[in-house]
TrEMBL record:
Region (Disordered): 1-41, 229-253
Keyword Lipid metabolism recorded: no
Composition bias, Polar residues: 1-10
Domain ParB-like N-terminal: 44-133
Protein name, per record: ParB/RepB/Spo0J family partition protein
One CC-aspect GO term: chromosome
């Protein structure tokens, strides 16, 4: 977010790039003095007790150890990045920054800096989703549930979501397919016992819960999970399993490289192509919009929007 000036945000932006949350929040936010009128919009300080979390916040899981680490940092340096809120009832509802709000309470702060915006319910969910994705704070199930809510309740299309979160339509579709898995497997993903690649391999498998337990117990890789699912299919045992098709790989590549392409693609939400040879190789990322390019640049440089 670019609400607070910094050396990175003060330089001239490239046309169409670096918009992210600023495109949803507005280009400029006037700073308000502490104690300004409650109807004022902009940056100001509010009591932590005046803020309440949004019940449909995409992020459901908050790690206690990570919250303690953030609280320790806040006690030392203060809360540097404002929390985005909207007027709601007699107080304010958190749009983006619930984790910082929780950590601020642990740090025993009485007031926190906030950005106040008038937002609809759909805009609120969009911003919360984008903020969490940009910070890589959502697990695959939380992200998929947020996409489904935006599609089913607010009539977004996958194409529109692709533009909002700067990820490919295929990435969004693959994530949403995870919601077809049994609840116990979805919980494994939320808890971190399974990664998205593992869960995706289990879609459509016979008795996926038993296979998931085997994957966890044996600490199988994604490629080993795919092979396990193939062997478990009726008529795919013994010699038939040996002849089962392997993951597609680029000419001169291998199944390991194909699995790595899929893994990186899951993380970035973009198509990834790896070409490897005896003396090295190349890693190519395919993007369709300048926003997607900017997202990759920020990930590589460590910048935050």
């Amino acid at each position: 977010m670019t609400d607070t000036p910094s050396p990175a945000s003060s330089r001239k932006q490239r046309p169409g790039l670096g918009r992210g949350l600023s495109a949803l929040l507005g280009e400029s936010l006037p700073e308000e003095p502490v104690g300004g009128g409650e109807s004022s919009l902009g940056i100001r300080s509010l009591p932590v007790t005046a803020l309440a979390p949004h019940p449909e916040q995409p992020r459901r899981h908050f790690d206690d150890d990570a919250l303690d680490e953030l609280a320790a940092s806040i006690r030392t340096r203060g809360l540097i990045q404002p929390i985005v809120v909207r007027p709601f009832g007699k107080g304010y509802q958190i749009v983006a920054g619930e984790r910082r709000w929780r950590a601020a309470q642990r740090a025993r702060l009485h007031e926190v800096p906030v950005v106040i915006r008038e937002l609809t319910e759909a805009e609120t969910l969009e911003i919360a989703l984008v903020e969490n994705i940009q910070r890589q704070d959502l697990n695959a199930i939380e992200e998929a549930e947020a996409y489904r809510k935006l599609i089913e309740e607010f009539q977004h299309t996958q194409e529109a979501l692709s533009r909002i979160v700067h990820k490919s339509r295929s990435h969004i579709a693959n994530l949403m397919r995870l919601l077809d898995l049994p609840p116990v497997i979805q919980k494994y993903v939320v808890d971190g016992a399974l990664k998205m690649g593992h869960a995706r391999a289990l879609i459509g498998a016979d008795d996926p819960e038993a296979l998931a337990r085997k994957v966890i117990d044996q600490d199988l890789s994604v490629r080993e999970t795919e092979a396990l699912v193939r062997r478990a299919k009726p008529g795919e045992s013994g010699e038939n399993a040996a002849r089962a098709p392997r993951p597609a790989a680029a000419p001169g590549g291998s199944a390991d490289i194909a699995a790595l392409e899929n893994q990186l693609g899951d993380v970035l939400g973009l198509k990834v192509k790896i070409t490897h040879g005896p003396k090295g190789g190349t890693l190519a990322l395919s993007y369709s919009t300048l926003d997607q390019l900017d997202m990759v640049c920020q990930r590589l440089s460590g910048e935050r929007i």
